[in-house]
Amino acid sequence: GTPPNLAGVLGQPGTQTLLGSGDLGGSGQSGARISFGWWMDPAQCNGFEASYFGLGNQTSSFTASSANTPILARPVFDMGTNAEAAMLAAYPGILTGAINVDASTKLQGVEALYRRRVSEGCDSRVDFLFGYRYASLDEGLRINQASEWTSAQGAIVVGTTQNLFDSFTTNNDFHGGEFGISYTHQTSCWSLETVMKMAMGNNHSEVVIDGQTVNTVPNGGSATFVGGLLAQQTNIGRYERDAFGFIPELNITARRELGCNLHMSVGYNLMYWTAILRPGDQIDRNVSQFPPEAPTGVQRPAFAFQSQSVLIQGIQLGLEYRF
């Protein structure tokens, strides 16, 4: 009983959100950290260490089709009417369709640090760290929509199909100097190390927005247009910026000696990264035209850098060999 002009419009009775903020790509994932180092003197006062960590490429997907959800729509804010609206992907008796959303995330980083002993007691020592840090966060969000008309609608004939996509990708690269302090407490077989570090430097961020609409008419061929729904001629493009950012990190590691210079370790890691760009934040829900209309008057959706911070935490299990 929902009329087509109100189907999928936010705030209307019966409208349900199938995919919203935080519903895609929010699960934990496994990764690896490899570290090595050596002392430059027999007294172990000066040393060098380097490490790499990576979480690999995590992908998440969401799919909805008219086979299970007869009414499908993508909500937007219509600048023409100055009110909430929606673009139909499926509606009983008018068109069938499906929406697919894919998200990807890849995080990795490298450190190269000089370690200098500050003080040492009978069962503890304090080291000062400083050096270089690199971190990279690459993410993507793509929305695919496909619809087919099952009844004639004005100039639209039965069997006409519309396929469109919106794509938002972000790349963040951090380069900066890092300093920190390490405190280690040693017992007979166990040691506990607490490391606090702070990296400050430049965040180079890049946003790529792309979109396309293809309309196909039976026995009439296809027409391709630039832009989808949220990625149109008004915001499609490549955008870059440099901003100051910092990455504080806390690492707590407990080690147990297993013998033969082999140690088992378990730890907790917490990292906070500021001034980064993520795909979802670059989306403008305001539209002044629907595909395949050409933009006139108000130019929306528009692009503006929207940054945020990300909190990364994890549990570490590992083996360490000393020689």
Hey, roughly how much beta strand do the residues contain? over 45%
Number of helices: 0
Mean pLDDT: 93
> How can the largest sheet be summarized?
10 strands, antiparallel
Task: Describe the overall structure.
The protein has strands at 32-39, 46-65, 72-78, 83-90, 95-120, 124-149, 161-186, 190-217, 221-226, 237-259, 262-277, 286-287, 307-321. The radius of gyration is 27 Å and the shape is elongated. Helices cover 0% and strands 65% of the residues. Strand 5 and strand 6 (124-149) form a beta hairpin. The strands form 2 sheets. Strands 1, 2, 5, 6, 7, 8, 9, 10, 11 and 13 form a 10-stranded antiparallel sheet that branches. Strands 4-3-12 form a 3-stranded mixed sheet, with no helix packed on it. With 323 residues, the chain is mainly β.
In summary, what is this structure?
The chain has 323 residues and is mainly β. The chain is 0% helix and 65% strand. The protein is built from no helices and 13 strands.
Write the layout of secondary structure elements.
Layout: E1 32-39, E2 46-65, E3 72-78, E4 83-90, E5 95-120, E6 124-149, E7 161-186, E8 190-217, E9 221-226, E10 237-259, E11 262-277, E12 286-287, E13 307-321
Parallel strand pairs: 3-12
Antiparallel strand pairs: 1-2, 2-5, 3-4, 5-6, 6-7, 7-8, 8-9, 8-10, 10-11, 11-13
